[in-house]
Structure formats: structure tokens, C-alpha cells
Amino acid sequence: MNSKQLMIALIVGLLFTTACSGQEQAYDPAEVKKIEITTVKKEQATQVSELSGTLQPLEEALVSFEVGGRVVELAKEEGDNVTAGELLARLDSSDYSLQVASAAAAVQQTAANLEKVNNGARDQEVTQARLQVEKATIAYRKAQDDFKRIERLYQEKAISQNEYENAKNYLAVAEKDLQNAQQAYSLVTQGARAEDRELTRASYNQAVVSKELAASTLAKTQLRAPISGTVIAKLSSTGSLVSVGTPVYRVGNIDTLKVVLPVPDREIFAWKEGEIVTMELYGQTRNGKVVKIYPATNQGTGTIGVEVHIGNPRHDWFAGQVVKARKTIQGKEGIYVPVEAVISRGQGDAHVFLNVGGKAVKTAVSIGEINGNRLEIVSGLKEGDKLIVKGVDRLFDGDPIEAAGGQPQ
After folding, report:
1. Which residues form a coiled coil (predicted)?
2. Which stretches of 120-235 are DSSP H helices?
3. Which superfamily, per CATH, for 50-58+252-331?
4. Which CATH class, in words, describes the domain spanning 61-92+222-249?
5. pLDDT tens digits for range 110-156
């Protein structure tokens, strides 16, 4: 049994209890009972749905620094309007400024090294290297001549072996000095190797990136509004130490507010995107527009969210207030009777009394949906029937009846 059927059963059960208690009194079949009647007719079922929800800014952001530090300025107060990109707060930037200066110096140094590698040696350095080669060449030739002379003397046993070895070593040293001078001259005339140039360029590029990163970090010491709107809350104070991600301001767009109404899933068919809904707050009413119907049912509540936007140009409705929405839902056409006209001894055993020729005629009916204080009669009644709606708790089948204020029917 669903909730609606349970409610119907409770209602008709109470009616049955009332009827029984009335019928326990002494029964006089000749007594004419005073009743009220109505003519049965089909009507369109209507139901007023009342829902409530909490107002929220149309757009909202918790604003925080991307770097840590000490707050030195908070430029806005609660209620101030801000535009996207406007300065909200600043951190002490001394350390970050030093990092930028250090990175800039590294860029200058690596740029000079790169320029030197690309341009090669200066003329003075080339001349100096050439003179070193000439000097080493002269020394090597002299060492060769001296060695030849010492070698002949050694063969003639005119000098000792130690003198011969010294001359030989001197020649080897002179030859090495000449080779070194020639290699140095080659470096200054041919320039750096390709891999040395690439390594120097890579060092320069890395220094540039480090400078850009330091400059970006420095810029993050200034907190700017991500959206246009109103400062809803100020969450920090000057002098406070804040870490990355600590909220400092709450900014929201309250020119338009939104509310998500929890619509029972059985009523969602009556809601359409773009329709206008009346919203109420402390006796004030405004029109809201349905902009979104959420795609899934909340399993915990059995409701579907319907998002409504409400204009708030004067900012006199506030986020966090609870508003109510009223919507008239048209149901199906059928026969609906007051709940007090129906008596039931349990599920599937319901009846009403009709006025037929001035007598109460007990008539079995089948109950459908409940609509406010009226029950749908699926079968047992037809248009034009004279239904007794008041005094049914005192009636028996065949009782003579008289409409209140009238004559026997």
C-alpha cells in the first residue's frame, strides 16, 4: 500500500468509526433524517502544491590566495560591489620580490654566456693565442737544436747520460707546450662546439622560465575578484597569516537569486522550463522563472530539483532566506466527492448514500485518488446522482430523508 492509499484508508476508516458510533443509538425507522445533498458531476481535479527552498546567489565563489603569506590589505567590506578582476586583498610580497630579482640576475648572467659562445673570441684573444703558438714554436725548435747537439756529444761520450736525459725531457716538454698552444689557438678561432652552445642556450632558457615563474608567484600576492558581484562575507583580517586555499572572501551575484525546489516526482510532469512561478517571502511575492529541471530523482527524498531564478535588483531579498512557491496543478477529470460523504469498513468496501425518492439508498463505490479533502469515485456514481454529503453517519439504507431547510425528497 502506498502513502496515498494509506491516507485514504485512514480517512474512510475514521468515517466508518464515526458512523458506527452514531448508529449505536436507538434507531427509529420512521424518523425523517435531516441531510444535505449535492448533485454529482464531473470536474477537473486541481491541487495547490506548496514547496519551499533556500535562496542562493545565482553565482558564488570562495576567493582565496594561491600562495601563502601575511595579509597586509583587505580592500573590500561586506556588501561592497566588485567587478571581475578588481583587487580584493594583498599579501606581504617582500620575499617574492627578492625571488624575482634573483631570477632576473640569473637571466642576465646566462644571456652574457650565450652571447659569448655565439660571438666567439675577441680579436685580442685571437692575437694572444697566435703569439703563444709562435712562442711555443720557437721554444720547440730551440729544444730540437739543443737535443741534436747534446745527442752528438753523448755519442762521443763527451757528456754524461744525465745531461742527455735532461735534454731529451726538455724537448718533450717543448713539444707538449706547442701542441697546447696550437689547440688553444684553434678554440678561439673556430668557436665553441655545437653541444657547448646548446648547453649554454638551455641554461639561458631555464633562467628565463624561472624568472617568469617568480613573476607569476609575485602577481599571486594580489587577490582579485574572479566574478562580478557583491561581497557576501569577509573571512579574514589584516595581519593574519593565510595558507594556500584559505578563504578570504565570499563573493556572489545577488542581482538574481536562485532556489532549488524539491518537487515530488509524481508532480514533476506539471513543471516546464521557462514557466513563471509565484514566489513568496514574508508576505511579498515575486515571479520566478523555471530555468532547469534536474535529470534525476533524489533517492533519499523522492523529489526532483527544479531550479528557479528570481530577479533581485534592489538586493532586498537575501541569500539564506527560505521562500515558498505555490503552483496549481491540474489533475484528471472525474467525479470527486467530499471525504465525509464516504463510509468504509476497510479497503475495497466503501459506500455512499444517494437520495432516491426521498429515501437514503446505500450505494457501493470504488475509491481512486485523494485530492485535498475530496475523494475520486472511480465507479458507483454517475453525473446527476443526488449525493448525500452531510448526515451520512446517522443513515441506514432506506431511511426517509429531508434536505436541511426543505421538504422530504
Report:
1. 104-184
2. 123-155, 161-190, 194-219
3. Efflux pump adaptor protein, beta barrel domain (2.40.30.170)
4. mainly beta
5. 888 777 666 655 666 667 877 888 888 998 898 899 889 888 888 88
